[in-house]
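Predict structure. Chain length: 284.
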Amino acid sequence: MKKNVILFAATAAILLSSCASKKELQGCRDENKSLTSTLLTTKEDLAGKNARITSLEEQLRGMQQALKASEQKYSKLQESLDKSLSNASQNNISIEKLVDQINESNQYIRHLVEVKSKSDSLNMVLTNNLTRSLSKEEMKEVDVQVLKGVVYISLADNMLYKSGSYEINDRAAETLSKIAKIITDYKDYDVLIEGNTDNVPISKPNIRNNWDLSCLRASSVVQALQNKYGVDPKRLTAGGRGEYNPLQSNDTEVGKQRNRRTQIIITPKLDEFMELIGEAPETK
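Prediction complete.
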């Protein structure tokens, strides 16, 4: 009888220990799942911030180049003034008039810098509004950059179209509607839709080659922006570059995937921008 009691007690202890171990194991699994999810979210946020830093660095380099060009122009004008001063008595040059010209040039340079700063600020606001409107999932397939005063929105082809086709997917509708709202809000910008492909030849009825495919895809996006989302067609241009504007080598599948894209390029209206530059301040 004693032996049976002892055997029963030992068995119960083993069962209780086994249950406790399973609970601890399940707890570890749950914690590991939570940490993995947190890690993925953190990586996505970091990638977004790195892209933002790259865009800001590009804008900074552009401003530095503009400042350098202005300094060079000022230096040449200063050299001209120095030379004129040294020869004033011989050539009967009006120093006062020359100084006025230099002042006009400096004022115009400052005006150009102000115009560029205004354009850069508008581009920054446009880009921020767009990126804030897109979800994390959308940002995985949409790349937004500002390069040399132009906003580039690059969309992956597998998000927009069916494979080897120029028909727009239903799942792209929400993303296009958000982009269309930004385009509509910023009426002083023109919009170029540019199709790009990889170098794999295509053979389908009514599509002769990648030139045709890239142009047809750009045209599909233009018509969607006009017909579904009410963007003024006078602001839109559709164009295709085929396989001749690659981002990466077509030797790998990853490279081909990067090259198959449609870019929405948002630029200030050139005629209005030139008018703004032409409005040079009057000399006081």
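Summary: The CA atoms of residues 49 and 59 lie 16 Å apart.
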